[in-house]
Write a structure and sequence with these properties.
The protein has helices at about 5-20, 35-50, 150-170, 205-225, 225-240, 285-300, 330, 360-370, and strands spanning about 50-55, 60-65, 90-95, 100-105, 120, 125-130, 130-140, 175-185, 195-200, 240-245, 250, 265, 305-310, 335-340. By secondary structure, it is an alpha+beta fold.
């Protein structure tokens, strides 16, 4: 059975597991909601003590009340074989035999899937409950292996699991955006040393993604072209910011890199949905390219942030982003952003609104190209 066919089979199973995992809370908008369910929702809201507040000036949403409960290095790893099986699983790959990738509910989530958002006004301000989903993707059963050290097929499995979870979470119309991110290394704030990534589904669209949506929409309206496709074409022609290429996938240092050695990975062929590869797309090529890029970066930086940017959920036809849906499939383009963190403190990380980067992206790309990812 192919990876794609296996992914569809696992997706169907994960939906059944998620229904059981939701502890039979009534869905938003269900008119049959009983007084008992309302009380349970109220009790949940009081217990979580977390809320999301909106900054009316910057339009940012801020999660407040999260506890900083990072993994205790003195305790046994919760993701090693033998321990991870004791935790509830949302998805296990493969479904039979020894697992290779496993998706679990986050033990101390930023967002919880049960309950209502309960959006309310507090004078001129807006706030709502921290409703959403927060999952951990355990990328390998091997505790001492980083993602960069996995084979191409193993990384491809992780990519398919990411895509499967994005697609499944987008079935919930409450969730406006699903993000995949990976923090590797203590400087990046990783919670466990075992190779893992995280997935969050939120009832708002992050501000950074809104900036991209707005720019992409304006570019398309003026030129009837995808701005991301134009970036790939120009950088492909110039060559000086290209780090590596595998098939139709490109790794490049952005023209206005925010931090030293920032790398974006994009597909040359247009597609707005990471979770729905185009016909003929070869995700094994993406896996091979991503592995080489990470191995290069790890020779320079001890830590990094990785984020997958895909299109928002279009099931919700209301709200602030409803106007984007008309051209979204034409103007947006999924991509992966990787921001290394250098050991030496840089102004790049202290000046948040105006970035300072001492390394030109052309120089960064040249240095990364010169590094052998296989040594």
């Amino acid at each position: 059975m192919t990876i794609a066919a296996t992914a569809q089979k696992l997706l169907r199973r994960s939906r059944k597991k998620r229904k059981a995992w939701q502890n039979d809370f009534v869905a938003v908008g269900d008119t049959s909601c009983t007084q008992e369910h309302r009380k349970r929702r109220a009790d949940f809201a009081e217990e979580s003590l977390m809320e999301i507040r909106r900054d009316p000036i910057t339009q940012s949403w801020v999660v407040l009340g999260q506890r900083e409960s990072l993994g205790d290095p003195a305790q046994p790893c919760p993701f090693d074989p033998g321990a991870v099986e004791k935790r509830p699983s949302i998805l296990t790959w493969p479904a039979e035999g020894p697992w290779q990738v496993r998706v679990l509910p986050h033990p101390d989530p930023l967002y919880r899937i049960e309950g209502d958002a309960g959006r309310v006004a507090e004078g001129m301000y807006d706030k709502m409950g921290a409703i959403g989903a927060h999952e951990v993707v355990v990328e390998t059963p091997h505790h001492d292996k980083k993602m960069s050290q996995l084979g191409d097929e193993e990384i491809e499995r992780i990519l398919w699991v990411w895509a499967s979870r994005i697609a499944d979470l987008k079935k919930d119309p409450r969730f406006k955006y699903v993000a995949v991110f990976k923090n590797q290394g203590p400087l990046a704030g990783d919670e466990w040393s075992h190779a893992h990534s995280q997935i969050t589904a939120t009832i708002f669209v992050p501000r950074r993604v809104k900036y991209e949506l707005n720019s992409a929409s304006e570019w398309f309206r003026e030129r009837e072209r995808c701005i991301f496709c134009d970036v790939v074409r120009q950088d492909e022609k110039q060559g000086k910011r290209i780090v590596d290429v595998q098939g139709d996938y490109y790794a490049l240092c952005p023209y206005s890199s925010r931090v030293p050695y920032e790398v974006w990975v994009l597909h040359r062929r247009h597609n707005h949905l990471f979770e729905q590869p185009r016909a003929g797309s070869n995700r094994r090529q993406l896996a091979a390219l991503l592995g080489r890029v990470l191995r290069r970066l790890e020779k320079i930086a001890p830590a990094y942030h990785l984020v997958v940017h895909t299109a928002p959920n279009t099931l919700s036809k209301k709200g602030e982003l409803a106007g984007y849906w008309k051209t979204l499939s034409d103007d947006f383009h999924w991509h992966i952003e990787i921001l290394p963190i250098l050991e030496k403190r840089s102004k790049s990380y202290s000046i948040k609104e105006v970035y300072f980067n001492a390394v030109l992206p052309e120089q960064a790309a040249e240095q990364l190209r010169s590094l052998d990812p296989n040594t």
